[in-house]
Amino acid sequence: MQPGPYAKLGVFIDTQNTETPDREMAQELGQRFGCHTCGGQPAQGQRFVADHQPPSNFYTGQALNQPQQQLYEFDHNGTLFQTTDPYLTDSVGAIARPSTFGQHQFIYPQCPDCSNKQGGFVSGGKW
């Protein structure tokens, strides 16, 4: 229950309710970078899920255990992003700074298969 090994880019979300623009952003990020968990694309006819990290059931706005990879945040045109690749910011002229997991909530693209697996863990409290 953390950004997965393929978590190239997530976008800040200020509500636990996923709105249409958030879902569309998940589609754009997913088409470019794939599922943050498995790196794949959804099956034909399916769409990416806007996966909240940390999961909404556990989000408190407080720092949580850092994920296995270092995360970075950067601001681009007034939107806060999170990435595992600090050099990704070079292409947009932003400066990456270390990100504390859990302090903010971000959405990452996730394929439906990985989302369903994760949902079982989250709803069962097995985090």
How does this structure look, described?
By secondary structure, the protein is α+β, with helices and mostly antiparallel strands. It is 20% helix and 20% strand. The chain has two helices and six strands. It has helices spanning 20-33, 112-123; strands at 9-12, 49-53, 72-76, 79-83, 97-98, 106-110. Strands 2-6-1-4-3-5 form a six-stranded antiparallel beta sheet. Strand 3 (72-76) and strand 4 form a beta hairpin. It is globular and about 35 Å long. The mean pLDDT is 87.
Task: List key phrases describing it.
alpha+beta, 6-stranded antiparallel beta sheet, 2 helices, globular
Profile the largest sheet: 6 strands, antiparallel
Strand content: 15-25%
Q: Point out poorly predicted stretches.
A: none
Rg over CA atoms, rounded to whole Å, is 14 Å
Distance between the first and last residues' Cα:
6 Å
Q: Helices and strands, in N-to-C order?
A: EHEEEEEH
Average pLDDT for all residues: 87
Question: What would you call the structural class?
Answer: alpha+beta
**How many helices in DSSP terms?**
2
Helix content: 10-25%
Large-scale geometry: globular
> Which sequence of strands runs across the widest sheet?
2-6-1-4-3-5
Number of DSSP E strands: 6
